[in-house]
Design a protein that fits this description.
The structure holds two protein chains of two kinds.
Chain A lengths: L2 E11 L2 E2 L1 H8 L20 H6 L2 H15 L7 H5 L12 E5 L5 H10 L9 H6 L4 H10 L5 E5 L4 H16 L3 E7 L16 E8 L8 E6 L12 H8 L7 H9 L3 E6 L5 E7 L1
Parallel strand pairs in A: 3-4, 3-5
Antiparallel strand pairs in A: 1-2, 1-6, 1-7, 5-6, 7-9, 8-9
Chain B lengths: L3 E10 L2 E2 L1 H10 L5 E2 L10 E3 L19 H10 L4 H12 L4 E6 L5 H8 L23 H10 L5 E4 L5 H14 L5 E8 L3 H9 L20 E2 L1 E9 L7 E10 L12 H14 L8 E3 L6 H15 L4 E3 L2 H4 L6 H15 L1 E2 L15 E2 L4 E2 L4 E8 L3 E9 L19
The chains are: A alpha+beta, B alpha/beta.
Chain lengths: ~280, ~400
Amino acid sequence: MNTLSVASIGVLAPGLAGWSASRVVLAGEQLYSAAPMPAALATLLPANERRRTTATVKLALQVAQEAMANHPSLDKEAVANHPSLSKEGKMQVYTVLASSGGDSEVLDKICIALTQPDRPVSPTQFHHSVHNTPAGYWAIATGCTLPSLSLSAHDGSFAAGLREAAALAWIEAAPVLLIAYDLPLPFPLSERRRIAAPFAVALLLNPDVAGPRLATLRFNRDAAGYATSLENSALETLRIGNPAARSLPLLCAIARQQAQRVILPVGDHESLSMEVEP
Amino acid sequence: MKPLAITARTVTNALGRGVAASLAALRAEQSGLRPCDFEDADLPTWIGRVAGLENEPLTGEFAAFDCRNNRLAHIGLEQDGFAAAVRQARDRYGADRIGVFIGTSTSGIGATEQAYRQRDPVTGELPASFDYQHTHNVFSVADFTRRWLGLTGVALAVSTACSSSAKAFASACRHIRAGFCDAAVVGGVDSLCLTTLYGFNALGLASTQVCRPWDVERDGLNVGEAAGFALLEQAESGDRRIQLLGYGESSDAYHMTAAHPEGAGAALAMEQALARAGLSAEQVDYINLHGTATPLNDAAEDKAILRVFGPATPCSSTKGWTGHTLGAAGVTEAIFVGLCLEQGFMPGTLNTRQRDPQLGAGVLLRAREQTMRTALSNSFGFGGTNCSLLFGRGDDESPSPLAGEGRGEEKS
């Protein structure tokens, strides 16, 4: 119970349009520029659902969908034989969703409605207000009945999610899809919680480290230290501007395909240290 | 799985502060529900409110955390000697080896609701006193809890609507098993706010009467607030304390708010809790239902119970005492189940007068005294999230069904 492989990745942020386009940028082979983020299409959602859902749901589902599509053994015979990845053609995979604040656009609308006469909270807004809304849409879109956990650890949400996903993968001996996402808050909340740019990442984690993989993660149980930062100042700006982007040192290490120690921040006192190996 | 012992626990809800208040009300069949008198909410419904929160702000170094939800967490932590027990455990394990896993659905959104009513009429800005991170943010209540208890290790907020604090137990088990911590403070805190009161009202799910789970006339839930905490440690052999024997989780993959009509996801969660504990359905003595009293939820849970347990297993909902405490319901009812196991007491289903003839589960209308060894607690939520927790009475007299060959094999 100490190692995991990263089987595939999905990522979406300004200047990072999917894993295959982003890999060279994160490896330092191509210059990063914070180009506008492409629309999160989340084509997995049926068209009528897609119209009703929010930017948060689409962002989370887009990277989840990409990670599953990038999985090296999808569409191969192995999938048919892997009970947790294929059941009646559906994507059966455990999921962990990590987000600092969930869907602040919805919460803003509800809080505005509560200032109006008769407080006309929309039923749709209310059921979209729960932190696990993207998890619910993912389950509906994929038909996946496996457990899903949605959590927050404020700025440490990504590392907290990674730890939960690792424990889940080891104990269930099955792949786990970790999805981390956060979007800028609307005004006036934006004045009190600064999230500079949208960022979402999904990692398909496999306790079987012998299979096809982008990297292997080996957790250091005792080592701690300062969170790894990035040399590239534009990427560092992105990293500190969004809780989900705290994943960037890990993504860069994977993209470079070189062994590296990565330390992710979890909170004031705590960090999560790991050796990333190709 | 290897059982975990609950070595300290506490509940605060509409029945009062501390375990004794809840137990006395459960035994006396006294509801904590009252017509809605929260803030200026003008709604024809009943609520389960914790008295006195309005007058007990957080001060000093914790002033930044001051909001209804963290006040409730604070009061909850100080009942039943819970915080003191955690401090003792901290001396044994180290401050960084006790994890904090707190379930909440709305955290301190009430602070944001109030701030929006005080926006600057010209600039639209929120009042200077508003502190998003320490009140509204989902993590705020977990952050407050670990700071209040002086813990520095793993800390996270589980937020899966009304299954939140049940799933916090599952997450804590995983972190202990994976070695990320040695013991865990598991909790749930959700407080009354306008978002949930008006939200459930908008969905037509808030009852205008006291909630009546499984009743032929049931027509909705009553929102309540609660804080509950448990300290989970590895069970020792011959451990007589209440133990978590298994957990089961699933997703409905059906609808955002409506439960699967056949209760398929709920049944899956119950079956997995049994499998993880290595128990058969016949070995479960009592089930504390999710039992919110909405027509569809009770019907779906009924089908799931019948599928897994049949009509004979005694079950009841305690929502008629506390209301539906949302993200705190899982831990509240987990602790109720522990009390029932210790006392040999199955509560009835308060306010329920006539069982719905369409429903077939063995729902008790009145309390029953009966020795029990194991009991299950169900929690389900929006987004189709389901969690069942299976508890047992630690006992060194008769052979435990889990100590022998029947123990479930866990993978890995």
